[in-house]
Amino acid sequence: MARWKDILRERCPRCREGRIFRGSPLRGMLSVHERCPVCGLRFEREQGYFLGAMYVSYALSIPPVALLALLFWWAAHWPYDVAILAAFVAYLPAAPFVARLARVLWIHIDRGVDPNG
Ligand SMILES: [Zn+2]
Predict the structure, then answer these.
(1) How close is the Cα of 90 to the center of ligand 1, in Å?
(2) What are the residue boundaries of the structural domains of the chain, listed by start?
(3) Which of 29, 37, 101, 114 is 20 to 30 A from 53 in CA distance terms?
């Protein structure tokens, strides 16, 4: 439970105090500190590190988009392809927030698997 709280508070996986992002979502949506301001843990281990977060973001996005597509198809009786397109458009405003959450999840998953790498 504490781990989920840290993830939702966007805190460092090691010290659980340092903020992962430089600012609020309104200022710099995906701007990650190079190192934890409290314990110095390097967040972006290597170039392209956050590519893994894209897979997490994809996994987080498929269920709601599929649900929206089914809802549009079922409730509005739109053709399936139109319902899918509408679902993607309806989901767009949530995408930056999901991408931010995916980065935090990726850092926590990666540090959980390989804490000293
Ligand atoms: Zn830290």
Answers:
(1) 36
(2) 2-113
(3) 37
